[in-house]
Structures are given as structure tokens and as C-alpha cells.
Specification:
By secondary structure, the chain is of the alpha+beta class. The longest helix has 36 residues. A hairpin with a 2-residue loop joins strand 14 and strand 15. 30% of the residues lie in helices and 37% in strands.
């Protein structure tokens, strides 16, 4: 008897479930925005690296004791400024010695030329043997060659004396001094005295996708291409011009390397810094744009969710041109007038029903107003003998 009652109860419960029917999934709340067309500035964004326009590791060409140091860490120097002085006394002595040799051989040459002139007259009269004349002639020629060698030695000694004063080869800023006064160095020493970087003007090097190369080259033929960079923590951008395009595209990345030149008068850019680069290529008319927050990254590349007329979503693969002021310029994937999801994509999949929170700021305001009116209508007391339903729109 008890078993029969349990079976009846289960059957009754099963009947109640069948009457309730299958549950319907609630629409996913999302924020949407329209796809629009407008004129946008063509700015290519990239991350760049600041590079010195010239960098020199200063080394010695002669050896000796460092007796003077004219600069310290971080000093600005001009081309030709003195940096170090190597003990010049050995080189001064070498110059003196070479000049003394020249004087000695010049005197000997003068005597040899006088003898040669006298022997020439005696030879014409057959007073002396021809061998004596030839010997004097060879002696005079030898002394002329010796004087040339001595003059070369003197010039070399003077050059070494000049090298004893180490001067800056470029205008720039001195880094850390690596060898100080009192150190002994040798000629053509492997050790670096100091590194000097030119920071005014200065380069910023960055890469852009190769698809932008035709536009960049076309723009460079007509006008200077403006480039802006921002340093982390400094809201004021530095403005420069595109100075150079590399001669080949990187086969591994499909990017082309560019260099922009900046005056850097206030030394805001320093070699080695990473900066955000914006390359301006003019304006693009009738560009299709979507909010950047709508774009997602998938296995096949960028995509977004498009809201269909039945309030379900579908995915669209995108071909993008770039990002401008928080909006993404789209080449293919969506068209003007479509609606895309900009927030709430985490719970979405193709075919999922959505509840749009607002297509634009105006639409969002209207939605909030309508919601307020609906809440107000739900809170009203039911009238006697009426239907008890909410009033329409508060009319």
C-alpha cells in the first residue's frame, strides 16, 4: 500500500514539471554602440626606443700617464673640447730630436752640394777622377732623402704630441668617466676613457607594419611626416619629423624600421628610453570606426560581436587599420549602422540573446528614463475595479 502511494506521488510531481515547461535562458546584459563613418586623423601608434644620433667611445692613440682630467660625469661638451691630457713631455722631446736631425742633415747637405759644385768644375777640366764626382753626387742625394725621413719623423712626433691632448670628437654629453687622472695607459689601449652621446638632436627608432609603407613613402615625397612621442609620466608630447626609413622589411615580423629626428632642446628624451610614438599621415575620409573596447583578440585574429535584429549576437572577424583616440578604424568586418557589443563579451557566444544597455549615450539616457517610468508604474496601487496593470508610459 505504501509503495503504491510513493509511485502516485512521483507521477504527480512529474506531471507538475511537464506543465511548467522548459526554462528559457535570460538575455545577457551588454553595452552596445553603433558602427559609424567619420573623418579621422591617420595616426600609426607604436612603441619606440630613443637612440643617440652619434655615440663615440673615446680611446687613446698614444700612451702615457694621465696628468689632467678636464671633464666629469654628465658634462656637456662641444666638438674639440679638451677631455684629458696625457703626459706630453716624451712627445715634446721627440719633436725636438726630429728637428735637430733635420738641422744636422741640412748642414751636411749644404756642404755636399758645395763639394758637388766644385767637383763638377774640376771634372770638366779632367783634374779629378769621375768616381770622386759620382761619390759626392750620391752623398748629396742620400742627404736629401734623409732630410725627408727626418721631416716625416718630426711631423709624426708633432702628431703624437697633439694626440696627447684628448679632445671630444663630437658635441654631446659625457657619460661616466672610466679612467681618471693618475692612470697609465698605452697607445691604442683597449680601455675606453669615456663615452659621449649626442642628444641634441636625437633619434627615436620604431617599427610599423609593412602595409603602411606605401602611405608613408607617398607622404614623405610631398610633406614632412610629423611624429609625436610621449615619455612615461610626461603628458606633453615631443614633436619631430620622420628622418629615415630602413632599406628592408623584417621578414620575421613583417615590420619596417623607421627613425624620427627630434630637436630635444630641453633634453626630455634620453638614449635608451622607451616612448609611445604616434606617426601622423593626415586624415582619412569616411573611415568605418568602432570603439576599441569592442575589439577582442582570438585565435584567428581580432574579432567583435555584432547584435542582430533579433537581439542575438554573431562574431565577425576584422581587418583593422589602426587605433585613433580610443576608436579602432576597421577595413573589413562591419559596416556603418550595425551595432556592436562594447562591454559584457565574457558571457557571449554566437547565437546568445542579449539585452542592450545602450547603443549610444543618448540611447542609454532614454533607456534609464524608460526604466524609471516602468519602476514608477509598478509601484502604483491598483484601482478598484480596474485591471490592475501599469499605466502606459506615465501618460
Amino acid at each position: 500500500m505504501f509503495a503504491v502511494m510513493v509511485v502516485v506521488a512521483l507521477v504527480a510531481c512529474s506531471g507538475d514539471k511537464d506543465k511548467a515547461g522548459p526554462k528559457t535562458a535570460r538575455p545577457v546584459p551588454v553595452t552596445v554602440a553603433p558602427v559609424v563613418k567619420k573623418t579621422v586623423p591617420v595616426n600609426i601608434q607604436a612603441v619606440g626606443n630613443v637612440e643617440s644620433m652619434a655615440s663615440v667611445a673615446v680611446k687613446t692613440q698614444v700612451g702615457g700617464l694621465l696628468v689632467e682630467q678636464y671633464v666629469s660625469d654628465g658634462h656637456d661638451v662641444a666638438e674639440g673640447d679638451r677631455l684629458f691630457l696625457i703626459d706630453p713631455r716624451p712627445y715634446e722631446l721627440a719633436v725636438t730630436e726630429a728637428e735637430a736631425k733635420i738641422e744636422r742633415d741640412t748642414a751636411l747637405l749644404q756642404k755636399a752640394e758645395e763639394d758637388l759644385e766644385r767637383y763638377a768644375r774640376l771634372k770638366e777640366k779632367d783634374v779629378i777622377a769621375k768616381e770622386s764626382y759620382d761619390h759626392t753626387l750620391a752623398q748629396a742625394r742620400t742627404l736629401r732623402g734623409t732630410i725627408k725621413v727626418n721631416e716625416a719623423e718630426r711631423d709624426r712626433a708633432r702628431l703624437d704630441l697633439e694626440y696627447a691632448t684628448v679632445r671630444s670628437p663630437i658635441t654631446g654629453r659625457v657619460g661616466s668617466i672610466l679612467l681618471h687622472k693618475g692612470n697609465v695607459i698605452k697607445a691604442n689601449d683597449d680601455r675606453t676613457l669615456v663615452v659621449i652621446n649626442r642628444i641634441r638632436p636625437i633619434y627615436v627608432s620604431f617599427s610599423v607594419p609593412e602595409r603602411h609603407l606605401p602611405d608613408i613613402m607617398a607622404r614623405m615625397k610631398t610633406d614632412p611626416v610629423r611624429v609625436e612621442v610621449k615619455v612615461e609620466g610626461d603628458p606633453t608630447p615631443e614633436t619631430g619629423v620622420l628622418a629615415a626609413v630602413d632599406n628592408s622589411v623584417d621578414k620575421t615580423t613583417g615590420a619596417i624600421r623607421l627613425k624620427a629626428s627630434f630637436g630635444n632642446a630641453d633634453a626630455a628624451l634620453w638614449p635608451g628610453q622607451f616612448v609611445r610614438v604616434s606617426l601622423n599621415l593626415g586624415e582619412r575620409q569616411g573611415a568605418v570606426v568602432v570603439p576599441t573596447s569592442a575589439v577582442q583578440e582570438g585565435l584567428r585574429g581580432p574579432y567583435l560581436y555584432v547584435v542582430r535584429p533579433d537581439n542575438t549576437v554573431e562574431t565577425r572577424d576584422l581587418t583593422m587599420f589602426g587605433v585613433v583616440d580610443g576608436e579602432t578604424v576597421v577595413e573589413t568586418g562591419v559596416v556603418e549602422g550595425e551595432t556592436v557589443v562594447v562591454d559584457g563579451q565574457l558571457r557571449l557566444a554566437p547565437g546568445v540573446a542579449v539585452e542592450a544597455k545602450g547603443k549610444t549615450d543618448e540611447a542609454k539616457g532614454k533607456a534609464d528614463e524608460a526604466k524609471g517610468k516602468a519602476d514608477e508604474a509598478k509601484g502604483e496601487p491598483q484601482g478598484g475595479g480596474g485591471s490592475g496593470g501599469p499605466k502606459e508610459g506615465g501618460k
